[in-house]
Design a protein that fits this description.
InterPro entries: KH_dom-like_a/b (IPR015946), OsmC/Ohr_fam (IPR003718), OsmC/Ohrsf (IPR036102), OsmC_Ohr_Peroxiredoxin (IPR052707), Peroxiredoxin_OsmC (IPR019904). GO terms for molecular function: peroxidase activity. This is Osmotically inducible protein OsmC. The protein is an alpha+beta fold. It folds into two domains: 43 residues, no CATH class; 93 residues, K homology (KH) domain (GMP Synthetase, Chain A, domain 3, 2-Layer Sandwich), CATH 3.30.300. The protein is built from four helices and six strands; from the N terminus they run E-E-E-H-H-E-E-H-H-E. Helix 2 packs across helix 3. The protein is elongated and about 55 Å long.
């Protein structure tokens, strides 16, 4: 069964002076040119992409580890999305740390890389040339 996810965005005004709001699930946040390309308050589409990527990757890594007989105790992932005005998204850095009892560092690294390759959001973001992964196994 296919699942359809939905988000809404509304914008008022010109690009630099205007503002808008995005909403999905229980989240609602304002965004503007300043929150996207400067240091203004609010959220931005790239933060939403980062949240989606971090969440999807964490779940995918859990699935890969569990399928390999090493269910994790915890996985903490941060995604950093870099955007340049006029250029677009130039990179995504995934940083993950996981507690996985009984797994070797080599097996963990293999699972972490496999999860990055098969994560649905990673696949959706394949146009971003520079997606890096820094994976740490908690001791």
């Amino acid at each position: 069964m296919a699942v359809v996810s939905k988000a809404d965005a509304q914008w008022n005004g010109s690009l630099k002076e205007g503002g808008g709001e995005v909403a999905f699930g229980t989240f609602r946040g304002s965004y503007s040119f300043a929150s996207r390309f400067e240091t203004g308050a609010g959220t931005n589409p790239e933060q939403l992409i980062a949240a989606a990527h971090a969440g999807c990757y964490s779940m995918q890594l859990s699935g890969v580890l569990t399928a390999g007989g090493n269910p994790p105790t915890s996985i903490d992932t941060t995604a950093e999305v870099t955007i340049e005005a006029g250029v677009g998204i130039t990179g995504i850095k995934l940083v993950t740390e996981a507690a996985v009892p009984g797994i070797s560092a080599e097996a963990f690294a293999e699972a972490a890389n496999k999860a990055k390759e098969i994560c649905p959001v990673s696949k959706a973001l394949a146009a971003v040339e520079n997606i890096t992964l820094e994976a740490t196994l908690k001791s």
